[in-house]
Amino acid sequence: MKVLVLGIDGMDPRVCREANMPNLKKIGEIIGIRTHHDSGRSWGSFITGVPPAEHGIEAISLDYDLTKLKVLPIWDIIPKDKKVGIAGLPIGYPPQTINGWFVGGLLARPSDYARPIELQKELNELGWREPFEQGEYRERNAPRRFDVTNEMLEDEWKKILPDRTKCFKHLMKKYPVDLNILIYRCLDWISHRLFNNKPKILEWYARMDKEIGEILQAEKFDKVMIISDHGFKPILNLSIDCEVGQVALDPVIGHHRKVGTYVSNFGVPIEKIEDAFGVMKKLMEE
C-alpha cells in the first residue's frame, strides 16, 4: 500500500473551506481537529501519537529536537518491511537513519540534514533549503532573522514552495517507499505576517492547493491524508493572544489557534493530531 501524508503547517480549516482549493476538497471532507499551540508540540504528537508531556518536545527551538523524544516515533514503530520517507519535519534534527529516507526541516543544519547523507547533494541541486537560510542561523546557534519584509517573505516562498514539491517528487520516484510524508511550512510564515490581508491569505492557500495537486498527479497513492499542526487567528492583544513565554519580536499579526485541518480519502475521522499516528501505523500494518 502506498500512503501519502502531507503536513501543512498552520493551515486553518476555516480558511480552507473558503479558499479556492479544488485539489484538497476533492480528497475528502475538511475536518477541524484538536492540536497544540506550538508547532514543535504538535508535530511531536503527530510522529509519536502522545501529548507533549509524554513525548518531550515542548517547542520548536534548539533546546527541543529529536534527541529529546521520550517515546519511539512512527518510523521506528511500523513493520520492519515497510519503508518510510519523511521530508521537512520542523523538529527533524539530528537527521535519522531509517528504513527509507529522512530530510530535516526548520531545525536542520545545511551541512547535515538528510539520511542517507548522499541525498544532500541531489537535494541541494534541486533547490531544497530553508527560507532565509534559517539552517545557517541554526548551525551558528544564532537567533532567527526578523529583518524580513512582507515582500521579501512572499518572494522567498514563491521560490521555495515549488522547489520543495520538486524535491519530494524526486525522492518518491527515485527512492520509492510505502509511507511518504512531506511537511510544508509556507502557510505558517505567511499567516503570521499577512493574516489581516484576507485576499492575500486566500491567494496563498490557492498556491498551496496547486502544490497538493502536483504531488497527487506525480504518483498513484492508495491512501491520502492532509493534516496541519494548528490553525490561525488574528492577534488582538499580544498579552492575551500569545501564550506566556512567547514574545513577538517581529511584526506578526496572526498567531496560532489550537485547531488544525484534517482531510483524508479513506473516511477514517480523527479528533486530535495524536490520532494521526495510529492511522498511519494501522495503514502500514495492513
Radius of gyration: 17 Å
Helix content: 25-40%
Distance linking N and C termini: 8 Å
Main CATH class: Alpha Beta
Strand count: 10
Global morphology: globular
- From the 3D coordinates, which CATH architecture would you assign? 3-Layer(aba) Sandwich
Q: Largest sheet, if any? A: 8 strands, mixed
Q: Spans with pLDDT under 50 lasting ≥5 residues? A: 239-250
Individual helix count: 11
Give the integer mean of the pLDDT values.
89
Question: What is the spatial order of strands in the main beta sheet?
Answer: 2-10-7-1-6-3-4-5
Strand coverage percent: 15-25%
Domain count, please report it: 1
Please characterize this protein's 3D structure:
It is a single chain. By secondary structure, the chain is of the alpha/beta class. It has one domain (3-285): Alkaline Phosphatase, subunit A, CATH 3.40.720. The protein has eleven helices and ten strands. Helix 7 (150-174) packs antiparallel against helix 8. The longest helix has 25 residues, at 150-174. The radius of gyration is 17 Å and the shape is globular.
Main attributes?
286 residues, alpha/beta, Alkaline Phosphatase, subunit A, eight-stranded mixed β-sheet, 11 helices, 17% strand
Q: Outline of this structure?
A:
This protein is α/β, with parallel strands linked by helices.
